[in-house]
């Protein structure tokens, strides 16, 4: 029998065997497209860009491939190198099969399988089939023919792009492009495309992160073949060979760490979770927050929420400055943590007072030592401004006027209004809302504050915040009326900006919780609302931290990174411009005069509290000063550390002293009339 005749009979036998295998597969009822193959779950942004993927249950990085999402150059190179007649054969290439059969007859074993891309897909789907035996090859042929007939060429190519091995736990071109180049495979250079063509032929031996030289040689062979095939020009081959081969795998994207975890936990069966976030904004703000918080000191963390208050969509949410930093407790999502909001609720006290007709921005109010029953609030700097318009009182964040307005509004009514707006403020068990609520004596989440300020920006109507697209949302509720919201926004626009920032572009407010535990800054322009928190997740004190110095600069830079500020809404007709002289007589001055607090009894050390640990960096070598605050007594005051004079101060009631080193320290203060108070703290 002639050689040609022998080759033809052998080839025909392979095809006939393939037909028998096809019948067997149908009888077995196997799925045709690998539907059982698990793919990585993805959290994507509003535009479908990847925020964070998750490994499959078998610890693989594997994504569904799609021809439309891959660089056309790669597809040309792939078919030219692996299967030149892919577009024309029925799943098996007869010419390649004849060649492989001839090699088998001459050598007595399978030398090359003549595998088409479709046959490779058949093998990848059934990973139990391994080896180069004739029976394995026959099953590949049968399955490839069947898959081609049932799925068609585009879907077959999609499956190859999904399942091709790229070394280790990386499968499919998308996972490989992310792992080796840190980008999606939509646009690949000639060198990148050639490397991704070469690796699946021998994925472990050609892994660039372990065998970069072998990977380079394989890539260069693909480039040379593409030149001979007319797919690439000489200059493309030269540039491809000059490209550097990656020597390490890139980490998969990990944007919106905490929000992504929440989305997966809420719907674990869903493969793709589409968020309202914008990846560009999320990435820029994560970088900003991480860099700024790191520069402010050890153990600090930060959180940020950015909202498009027109639509209610959350543009970005960052739960920690660095989710992987255990020293900063990055695993704690501080956008959901309940903390004292400091002075950030004051604008809503003023809004309710304006809404109720108790005051107007031009109404005069007293800022002087005052008592409200047994409660005697004082300003942060221990100074007083006298008689000022409520506009100025809010801009300067004066405490006494805010408490006076809250007393008139009613703490319970104020608390209930927050609840009606959809916020859940928290009080210690058994307590009822009191005047301290207005100065931070309540627990709120950063997400709550962001929603409240978004409500101000929307004319008093709370937005229905949208994080996960497609999830059911609650309708927005009012927090104040349009006129009051506009007045408060107008006042906050003129609040003094941080150093190097421009006043007048944002309406914003800062806050600092008692004991220097939390620093806040929340603000809005005509389109976006952003809220920032800085502090320690464990609630420990950070001496000297304030909203103005720690959080406000981040807030202003966050707006800058999102683009030019949007114009504020115009003055509504319900909020006419009035001078003080044009106000009705009852609105020209707020409330009766109050009993002036002498503030000379019961000298106390307000900070640091007795028995606390104060982290001044002593254990790290560069110790910060200790901030001392007093309450009561009569100035001047003398501070003693372990019985030794350490400083003197007057009516400002604050001074910085320098402990000798780490360990327990007794801090004492003596006032001008000889009264004294002492606390013992542990300096670290």
From TrEMBL:
Biological process per Gene Ontology, one example term: peptidoglycan biosynthetic process
Domain Penicillin-binding protein transpeptidase: 302-525
InterPro entries xrefs: Beta-lactam/transpept-like (IPR012338), Glyco_trans_51 (IPR001264), Glycosyltr_51/Transpeptidase (IPR050396), Lysozyme-like_dom_sf (IPR023346), PBP_1c (IPR011815), PBP_C (IPR009647), PBP_transglycosylase (IPR036950), PCN-bd_Tpept (IPR001460)
Keywords for the protein's UniProt record, in alphabetical order: Carboxypeptidase, Glycosyltransferase, Hydrolase, Multifunctional enzyme, Protease, Transferase
EC number: 2.4.99.28
Keyword Hydrolase set for record: yes
Pfam families referenced in this protein's UniProt entry, alphabetically: BiPBP_C, Transgly, Transpeptidase
Origin superkingdom: Bacteria
Reactions this protein catalyses: [GlcNAc-(1->4)-Mur2Ac(oyl-L-Ala-gamma-D-Glu-L-Lys-D-Ala-D-Ala)](n)-di-trans,octa-cis-undecaprenyl diphosphate + beta-D-GlcNAc-(1->4)-Mur2Ac(oyl-L-Ala-gamma-D-Glu-L-Lys-D-Ala-D-Ala)-di-trans,octa-cis-undecaprenyl diphosphate = [GlcNAc-(1->4)-Mur2Ac(oyl-L-Ala-gamma-D-Glu-L-Lys-D-Ala-D-Ala)](n+1)-di-trans,octa-cis-undecaprenyl diphosphate + di-trans,octa-cis-undecaprenyl diphosphate + H(+)
Domain Penicillin-binding C-terminal: 596-681
One Gene Ontology term of the molecular function aspect: carboxypeptidase activity
Pathway, per record: Cell wall biogenesis; peptidoglycan biosynthesis
GO cellular component: outer membrane-bounded periplasmic space
Domain Glycosyl transferase family: 60-226
Family: In the N-terminal section; belongs to the glycosyltransferase 51 family. In the C-terminal section; belongs to the transpeptidase family.
Name of the featured protein: peptidoglycan glycosyltransferase
Organism of origin: Phreatobacter oligotrophus
Taxonomy of the source species: Bacteria, Pseudomonadati, Pseudomonadota, Alphaproteobacteria, Hyphomicrobiales
């Amino acid at each position: 029998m002639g050689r040609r005749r022998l080759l033809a009979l052998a080839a025909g036998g392979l095809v006939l065997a393939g037909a028998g295998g096809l019948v067997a597969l149908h009888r077995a009822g196997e799925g045709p497209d690998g539907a059982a193959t698990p793919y990585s779950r993805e959290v994507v942004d509003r535009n479908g860009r990847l925020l964070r993927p998750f490994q499959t249950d078998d610890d693989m990085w594997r994504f569904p491939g799609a021809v439309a999402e891959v660089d056309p150059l790669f597809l040309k190179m792939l078919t030219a190198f692996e299967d030149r007649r892919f577009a024309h054969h029925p799943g098996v290439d007869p010419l390649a099969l004849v060649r492989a059969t001839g090699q088998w007859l001459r050598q007595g074993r399978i030398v090359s399988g003549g595998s088409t891309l479709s046959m490779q897909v058949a093998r990848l789907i059934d990973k139990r089939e391994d080896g180069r035996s004739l029976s394995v090859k026959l099953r590949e042929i049968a399955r490839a023919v069947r898959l081609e007939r049932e799925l068609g060429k585009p879907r077959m190519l999609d499956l190859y792009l999904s399942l091709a091995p790229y070394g280790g736990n990386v499968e499919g071109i998308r996972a490989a492009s992310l792992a080796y180049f840190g980008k999606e495979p939509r646009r690949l250079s000639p060198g990148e495309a050639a490397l991704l063509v070469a690796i699946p032929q021998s994925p472990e031996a050609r892994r660039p992160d372990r065998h970069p030289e072998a990977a380079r040689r394989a890539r260069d062979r693909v480039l040379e073949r593409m030149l001979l095939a007319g797919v690439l020009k000489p200059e493309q081959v030269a540039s491809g060979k000059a490209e550097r081969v990656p020597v390490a795998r890139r980490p998969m994207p990990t944007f919106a760490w905490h929000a992504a975890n929440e989305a997966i936990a809420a719907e674990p069966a869903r493969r793709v979770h589409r968020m309202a976030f914008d990846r560009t904004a999320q990435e820029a703000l994560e970088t900003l927050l991480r860099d700024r918080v790191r520069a402010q000191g050890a153990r600090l963390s930060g959180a940020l929420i950015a909202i498009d208050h027109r639509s209610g969509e959350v543009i970005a949410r960052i739960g920690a400055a660095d989710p992987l930093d255990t020293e900063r407790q990055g695993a704690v999502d501080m956008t959901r943590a309940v903390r004292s909001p400091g002075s950030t609720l004051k604008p809503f006290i003023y809004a309710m007072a304006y809404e109720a007709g108790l005051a107007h921005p031009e109404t005069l109010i007293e800022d002087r030592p005052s008592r409200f029953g047994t409660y005697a609030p004082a300003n942060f700097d221990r100074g007083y401004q006298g008689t000022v318009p409520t506009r100025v009182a809010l801009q300067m964040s004066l405490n006494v006027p805010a408490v006076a307005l809250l007393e008139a509004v009613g703490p319970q009514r104020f608390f209930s209004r927050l609840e009606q707006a959809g916020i859940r403020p928290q009080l210690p068990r058994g307590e009822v809302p009191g005047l301290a609520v207005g100065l931070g004596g309540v627990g709120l989440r950063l997400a709550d504050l962001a929603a409240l300020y978004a409500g101000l920006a929307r004319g008093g109507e709370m937005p229905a915040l949208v994080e996960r697209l497609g999830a059911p949302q609650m309708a927005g509720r009012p927090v104040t009326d349009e006129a009051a919201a506009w007045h408060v926004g107008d006042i906050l626009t003129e609040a003094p900006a941080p150093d190097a920032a421009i006043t007048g572009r944002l309406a914003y407010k800062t806050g600092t919780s008692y004991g220097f535990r939390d620093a806040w800054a929340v603000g809005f322009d005509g389109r976006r609302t952003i809220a920032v928190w800085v502090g320690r997740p464990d609630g420990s004190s950070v001496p000297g931290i304030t909203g103005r110095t720690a959080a406000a600069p981040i807030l202003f830079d966050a707006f800058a990174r999102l683009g030019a500020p949007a114009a504020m809404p115009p003055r509504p007709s319900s909020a006419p411009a009035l001078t003080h002289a044009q106000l009705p007589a009852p609105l020209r001055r707020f409330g009766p005069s109050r009993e002036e607090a002498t503030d000379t009894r019961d000298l106390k050390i307000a900070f640091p509290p007795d028995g606390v640990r104060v982290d001044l960096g002593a254990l790290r070598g560069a110790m910060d000063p200790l901030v001392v605050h007093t309450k009561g007594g009569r100035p001047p005051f003398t501070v003693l550390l372990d019985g030794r004079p350490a400083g003197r101060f007057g009516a400002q009631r604050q001074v910085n002293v320098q402990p000798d080193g780490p360990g327990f320290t007794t801090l004492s203060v003596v006032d001008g009339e000889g009264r004294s108070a002492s606390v013992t703290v542990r300096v670290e």
